[in-house]
Amino acid sequence: MNNMGGKKRICDEGEGVWLGSSGLIMMILVVQCLTSIGSVSAAAQIPAMFIFGDSLIDVGNNNYLGSLAKSNYYPYGCDFRAGPTGRFSNGRTVVDMLGNLLGLPYVPPFADPNTTGTRILWGVNYASAAAGILDETGQHFGQRYSLSQQVLNFETTLDQLRRMMSGANMTQYLAKSIAVLEFGSNDYINNYLLPSLYSSSYIYTPPAFANLLLNRYTQQILALHSLGLRKFMLAGIGPLGCIPNQRASAQPGRCMDYVNQILGSFNEGLRSLANQLNTNHPGAIFVYANTYAAFGDMLNNPALYGFSVIDRGCCGIGRNRGQITCLPYLVPCANRNQYIFWDAYHPTEAANAVLAWRAFNGPPSDCYPINVQQMALI
């Protein structure tokens, strides 16, 4: 751990993050350094993590799909040891860091042909850029694994796992593992808010659309439960109206308030769904991660976290560097850990570190009814 000019660099293994010296941030990345990067820790708190979601946590699945939504080129991954891997950030994702805090190595992408055999034992990442809860969401980008397809892909993984462990061991393994689900952003950004390509905003009011999403989401969550998973982290949607892509269309210095407002029905409904699922399934635990509040706190109090740039991407073109996202070999900003946003849509590694820590160790206002660390102990 090095100290320079009031900022500290955590980890000197080629994947350090420079951040302000607030106590919260120091705790985040000190914990990351206590676990080995890229290898199974002897102190692994859970057997595996199974990850379902979109580009916020895709670690390379779209590299293997016929999709326009890819990030397997520089400067994506410019601060990641392996370089551009298909992660939509300059460095690690939230789930990379969450896994690290749980003592797990990087969870590999499902679509990678090498994700077989013992490599799947600590979990698999099914997340796919442009994916949504609705099958049609993001279809203008080409191929992607929608939520329903990701559940089918998980079943493929189960077939492989059954060949490696007995039925009783498998039941225990799945019950102790954690499923992370992060969906909904694309159902708004790449569906509801694109009336020229999708009819959903003509058919549904914002509350009705949120209800549609939650009903479909519930079906797939229950499908995963029926397959044996028992610990679920359900991440809410962050303040999409404040991402550079949306700010580029807003009044100067403002977020798109309407976009943030319509997310309330979904996030409130997802929190209520977690309550309902916990009541109806006493042998399982469903946790709601309040991404909106955690991200909002960074936007409202950036200096507390070492950020100084909250309204534009580190890499991108146009107003707020958000009209055209990060293109191949575009030169990114130099002071990346002072930026909350990496490109038009996605957080920097530094912002991901804050989100991971708050999900792992936060109070009920961040993670309800318990946090991920507490869930791992059950």
Automatic annotation (TrEMBL):
Database matches in SUPFAM superfamilies: SGNH hydrolase
Q: Which residues form the signal peptide?
A: none
Q: Name one GO cellular component term.
A: extracellular region
**A Pfam family of this chain:** Lipase_GDSL
Keywords recorded for this protein, A-Z: Hydrolase, Lipid degradation, Lipid metabolism, Secreted, Signal
Among the record's GO biological process terms, what is one? lipid catabolic process
Q: Origin, by domain of life?
A: Eukaryota
GO MF term set: hydrolase activity, acting on ester bonds
The places in or outside the cell where this protein is found are: Secreted
- So what family is this one in? Belongs to the 'GDSL' lipolytic enzyme family.
PANTHER family reported for this sequence:
GDSL ESTERASE_LIPASE, GDSL-LIKE LIPASE/ACYLHYDROLASE-RELATED
> By what name is this protein known?
GDSL esterase/lipase At1g71250
Query: In which organism is this protein found?
Result: Prunus avium (Cherry)
* Encoding gene (name): LOC110755952
